[in-house]
């Protein structure tokens, strides 16, 4: 078969098979690839006859990508694989190119398969190969979540069950979940690790109900070693899915199997979640990813620059640019990555290849403009007082109890961030306080943002409110 020749025959499959032998190793080849009998290649669907559904399921989970890649390297134009047992007329089992997505069940014993006799299989979400522990930059705001994730990824006796990770958008929950799954699979290739979003859980559940396969569904979920469900807030308000999730959850906990859950808020704050589910979710270790600090953002940018360098050879990021981006783009890591990618793309289009601060301002003007939006000190004081439910007169007044002094410091901190006012000017607007008091307040909040999740969340929320003014 020549490159560009979008056909495949029994013979050309023979050539691809030899390529695969080198890729998958002798044992895997003999057990899984050798039994595949070429059927047809139609409209990008490569169909094989397999001796049993078990082999079809197995190959579709663990070798699908490799087969597609090798076939396409020889120009076959394959989009997906299908398997039929015995005669080609049988119903094909589709493969969606998700071998990595499956429960990491590598042991061929029937008792360990996630496909019951009916042939029902459940594949999880595809893991992202970039989301590893090595690629995760650790700083104060995420160190607790990172340590807990690492501990769970070591496997062994289950200590925190479930591990519940929560945090705002784009702060690394999915990254950490994927990193745990990779690590568990590397340590124990026989472990059945099922990672999926809550949305996929619901989808599978509804499908099983519709196809009258609930027994299989239950059996599959109860036979995994580690269940990871991302964005669990999705099932809030979906009563029967919650019910099923609750039973799955209990069954696994009873068997001492590890469960890892993520959500955008703490269990108790997810509205529409049944009380008993909330209490189950709270029964293990609940850790949050705090909004990023300047240091963490800078660390992440430095790490990502190294990654982008290979992709954009010749582009240089000028002095002070990363610091500027880390200062100005504070929302989340996803946005930070997007900004950096834009700078590299920009650099690759200009002759000298160096992206300096001026070019950065130009290139990221829209992202920075949102941040540049100025709020007045009055507006800041009003929003902060509202947020903490205190009077403005108390916010700027002399009372020193914590319920007033903390909001006051938060307001000072935001006044420094959102306005061009000098410290003495801010001091005057806060009941005539000295500039050293203002500086002390600003520093106290900067520090608390790194160590106290409540303050970090308050500041983050107020920032969003003030940007929207
Ligand atoms: N500490 C970190 N170090 C390196 N990269 C990070 C870090 N935190 C987040 N990222 C990156 O930021 C991006 C967004 O992270 P991720 O998808 O894990 O966020 P999330 O919390 O799951 O968000 P969502 O709530 O939107 O699902 C990913 O590309 C991830 O690799």
Automatic annotation (TrEMBL):
ATP binds at residues 170, 172-174. InterPro entries: AAA+_ATPase, Chromosome_initiator_DnaA, Chromosome_initiator_DnaA-like, Chromosome_initiator_DnaA_CS, DnaA_C, DnaA_dom, DnaA_N_dom, DnaA_N_sf. Residues 376-445 form the Chromosomal replication initiator DnaA C-terminal domain. CDD domains: AAA, Bac_DnaA_C. Residues 1-102 are annotated as: Domain I, interacts with DnaA modulators. Plays an essential role in the initiation and regulation of chromosomal replication. ATP-DnaA binds to the origin of replication (oriC) to initiate formation of the DNA replication initiation complex once per cell cycle. Binds the DnaA box (a 9 base pair repeat at the origin) and separates the double-stranded (ds)DNA. Forms a right-handed helical filament on oriC DNA; dsDNA binds to the exterior of the filament while single-stranded (ss)DNA is stabiized in the filament's interior. This is Chromosomal replication initiator protein DnaA. It comes from Oceaniovalibus guishaninsula JLT2003.
């Amino acid at each position: 078969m020549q490159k560009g020749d979008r056909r495949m025959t029994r013979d050309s499959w023979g050539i691809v098979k030899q390529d695969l032998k080198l890729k998958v190793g002798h044992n895997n080849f003999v057990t899984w690839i050798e039994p595949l009998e070429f059927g047809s290649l139609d409209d990008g669907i490569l169909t094989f006859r397999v001796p049993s559904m078990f082999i079809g399921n197995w190959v579709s989970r663990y070798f699908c990508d490799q087969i597609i890649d090798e076939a396409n390297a020889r120009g076959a134009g394959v989009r997906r694989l299908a398997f039929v047992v015995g005669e080609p007329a049988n119903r094909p089992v589709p493969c969606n190119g998700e071998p990595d997505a499956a429960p990491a069940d590598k042991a061929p014993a029937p008792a360990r398969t996630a496909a019951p006799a009916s042939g029902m299989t459940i594949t999880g979400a595809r893991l992202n190969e970039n989301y590893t522990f090595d690629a995760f930059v650790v700083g104060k705001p995420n160190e607790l979540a990172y340590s807990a994730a690492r501990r769970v990824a070591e496997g062994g006796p289950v200590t925190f069950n479930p591990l519940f990770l929560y945090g705002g958008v784009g702060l690394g929950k999915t990254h950490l979940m994927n990193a745990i799954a990779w690590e568990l699979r590397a340590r124990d290739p026989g472990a059945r690790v099922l990672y999926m979003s809550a949305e996929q859980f619901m989808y599978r559940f509804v499908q099983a109900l519709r196809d009258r396969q609930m027994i299989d569904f239950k059996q599959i979920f109860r036979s995994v070693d580690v269940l990871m469900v991302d964005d669990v807030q999705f099932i809030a308000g979906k009563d029967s899915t919650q019910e099923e999730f609750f039973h799955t959850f209990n069954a696994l906990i009873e068997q001492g199997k590890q469960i890892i859950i993520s959500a955008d808020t703490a269990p108790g704050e997810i509205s529409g979640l049944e009380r008993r589910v909330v209490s189950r979710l709270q029964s293990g270790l609940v850790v949050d990813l705090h909004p990023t600090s300047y240091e963490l953002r800078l660390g992440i940018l430095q790490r990502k620059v190294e990654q982008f360098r290979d992709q954009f050879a010749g582009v240089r990021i000028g002095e002070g640019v990363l610091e500027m981006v880390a200062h100005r783009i504070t929302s989340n890591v996803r946005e930070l990555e997007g900004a950096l990618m834009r700078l590299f793309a920009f650099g690759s289009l200009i002759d000298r290849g160096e992206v300096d601060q001026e070019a950065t301002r130009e290139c990221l003007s829209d992202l920075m403009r949102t941040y540049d939006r100025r709020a007045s000190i009055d507006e800041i004081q009003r929003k902060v007082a509202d947020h903490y439910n205190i009077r403005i007169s108390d916010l700027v007044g002399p009372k020193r109890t914590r319920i007033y002094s903390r909001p006051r410091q938060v307001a000072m901190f935001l006044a420094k961030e959102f306005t061009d006012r000098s410290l003495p000017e801010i001091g005057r607007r806060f009941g005539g306080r000295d500039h050293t008091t203002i500086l002390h307040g600003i520093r106290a909040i900067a520090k608390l943002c790194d160590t106290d999740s409540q303050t970090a969340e308050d500041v983050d929320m107020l920032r969003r409110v003030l940007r929207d003014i």
